[in-house]
Amino acid sequence: xxxxxxxxxxxxxxxxxxxxxxxxxxxxxxxxxxxxxxxxxxxxxxxxxxxxxxxxxxxxxxxxxxxxxxxxxxxxxxxxxxxxxxxxxxxxxxxxxxxxxxxxxxxxxxxxxxxxxxxxxxxxxxxxxxxxxxxxxxxxxxxxxxxxxxxxxxxxxxxxxxxxxxxxxxxxxxxxxxxxxxxxxxxxxxxxxxxxxxxxxxxxxxxxxxxxxxxxxxxxxxxxxxxxxxxxxxxxxxxxxxxxxxxxxxxxxxxxxxxxxxxxxxxxxxxxxxxxxxxxxxxxxxxxxxxxxxxxxxxxxxxxxxxxxxxxxxxxxxxxxxxxxxxxxxxxxxxxxxxxxxxxxxxxxxxx
Length: 352
Ligand SMILES: Cc1ncc(COP(=O)(O)O)c(C=O)c1O
Known about the structure:
Layout: E1 5-6, E2 31-38, E3 41-49, H1 61-64, E4 67-69, E5 72-76, E6 82-85, H2 87-100, H3 108-121, E7 133-142, E8 155-164, E9 172-176, H4 194-209, E10 214-218, E11 226-229, E12 233-238, E13 241-244, H5 255-266, E14 271-273, H6 278-287, E15 290-297, E16 301-310, E17 313-316, H7 323-337, E18 347-349
The chain binds pyridoxal-5'-phosphate.
Pyridoxal-5'-phosphate (PLP) binds next to helix 5.
């Protein structure tokens, strides 16, 4: 284990938080974990009160997009044990993202050691109600003060924690986008790099102006194959079979996606990972065999979808058909709060 220097806050804001009404992403807990990459190695791991960063205006992350992040959640059992879900997968994906963005990988003792120590310290910040949790945001930024396109030599790794309520309170409406694209095979779509999200904002704004909640991204070559939605991977139920786009290098290898596939297979459903075209879905909807669609991601867990539009075609989904989506959602939420036994061995106590 690494030695993490802990400086505790003298002014906790925990008592100011209304845990019955948690907006997503606005409230940070008292402390953050920080480590610096300098002289070719990670050093000075520490936990400090959350504070502002002081950065030179030429800090490279502000100009050239060398930023990567993760999104995870911690929950707490009835008897007060803080739990982390599939933390190794998040660590591995973080390093994959870092590798793609030419940033240094982070060893387990810094990433997982810091995460565990921080979550353990902040365990009173973990909300207890179903659908709420402590959202964890590990991220890394390039910190050289340098104007010029090159990899930075110094980086900062930080973990923030935020108590959050449900991401989407109700089913969402999607617009399949046929002008803008999110990512292309060979690009950085499968990395959790900040630029992927920056590029999605304008088409998402246009979709919202038309009354949709999110864009469903299609492939960048033919605008045909489904990719993903905002911060979720996508699942469709066609003819009783569950379909999800295969990992093609342009979409994120979602950990909730992986969990959903494992849950569904264990429960005896047939799950197919393969390219899915928008036109086959339109045909299936006409034939009455495309019955359900949902998104899966850490923030939203599972999000029901009640409308999908593509050009002038509108596909509506009855709330009575939200069967598979609700099954996956209830299973993950139940595992998370300990009301369903963890036969998958996904949850481990955070170690202080
Ligand atoms: C673009 C994108 N797709 C899918 C997901 C879902 O991934 P996960 O289930 O690992 O949160 C996320 C969220 O991390 C995302 O940002």
